[in-house]
Task: inverse folding
C-alpha cells in the first residue's frame, strides 16, 4: 500500500466509535440529579466535540450558576466513568479498516477531547491490538484540548512521527481546525456526528462516507 503517510491519528467519538447514546444517558442522568430538563439525543449530538465539560455547559439551562454547573459536571463524570461502554461500539467497518492499516504498517494513535481515563479504557477494550497510543483530555497536566494542537504533537512524539507523514482523521469542525493548527493533513468522515455538508462548509478538504474508502484514499 503506497502512501505518503506513515501515521494515522484518529479522533474517537464519531470517528472510530458511536458513543452518542452513552454520552446522552450520562448527560441526562446528571441533569436529572439537578432537576434540570433532559436533552434529546439529537441535542446531545449537537453539543459534543469540545470535551465533556463543554457538553454539560451546553446542556444545562440558561441561568445555571457556576456552582450548579460544577455539580452537574461532577454527576456526569461519576456516571460516565462507570457507563462509558454500556452502548458504545466501533462503527461498522472500523475494525476491518484498522486491520488493513496494521497490515500496511501504519502507526496509529487516538487523540480525543474525551477524558483521558475513558479514552484509555475504550481503546483498551476495542482497539489496543492496533492502536498503541491513546490520549484524552489532560488540561490539568498542561495540555489544552483540541483544537489546540498540543495533544497531536504529544502523540507524534510518542510515535516518532513528523507532521509531513501524519494524517488526522475526524468527524467534526474541531478536528478540521485541530489538523490545521498542527500543520498536518486532515481526512473528514461523514458517518459520525456531523454531515458531509457541514464538514465541507467548515473547511474539510477530503470527506469519506464509509471506513472502507480510507484505504483507497491512502493508496492514491
Result:
Amino acid at each position: 500500500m503506497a502512501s505518503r503517510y506513515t501515521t494515522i491519528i484518529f479522533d474517537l467519538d464519531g470517528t472510530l466509535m458511536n458513543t452518542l447514546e452513552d454520552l446522552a444517558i450520562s448527560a441526562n442522568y446528571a441533569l436529572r440529579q439537578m432537576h434540570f430538563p433532559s436533552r434529546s439525543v439529537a441535542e446531545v449530538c449537537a453539543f459534543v466535540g469540545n470535551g465533556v465539560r463543554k457538553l454539560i455547559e451546553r446542556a444545562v439551562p440558561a441561568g445555571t450558576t457556576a456552582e450548579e454547573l460544577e455539580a452537574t459536571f461532577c454527576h456526569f463524570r461519576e456516571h460516565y466513568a462507570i457507563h462509558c461502554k454500556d452502548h458504545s461500539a466501533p462503527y461498522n467497518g472500523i475494525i476491518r479498516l484498522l486491520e488493513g492499516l496494521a497490515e500496511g504498517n501504519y502507526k496509529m494513535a487516538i487523540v480525543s477531547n474525551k477524558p483521558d481515563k475513558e479514552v484509555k479504557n475504550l481503546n483498551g477494550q476495542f482497539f489496543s491490538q492496533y492502536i498503541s497510543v491513546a490520549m484524552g483530555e489532560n488540561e490539568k497536566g498542561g495540555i489544552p484540548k483540541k483544537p489546540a494542537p498540543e495533544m497531536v504533537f504529544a502523540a507524534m512524539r510518542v510515535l516518532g512521527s513528523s507532521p509531513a507523514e501524519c494524517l488526522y482523521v475526524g468527524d467534526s469542525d474541531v478536528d478540521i481546525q485541530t489538523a490545521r493548527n498542527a500543520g498536518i493533513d486532515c481526512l473528514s468522515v461523514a458517518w459520525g456526528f456531523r454531515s458531509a455538508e457541514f464538514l465541507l462548509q467548515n473547511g474539510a478538504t477530503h470527506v469519506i462516507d464509509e471506513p472502507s474508502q480510507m484505504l483507497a484514499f491512502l493508496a492514491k
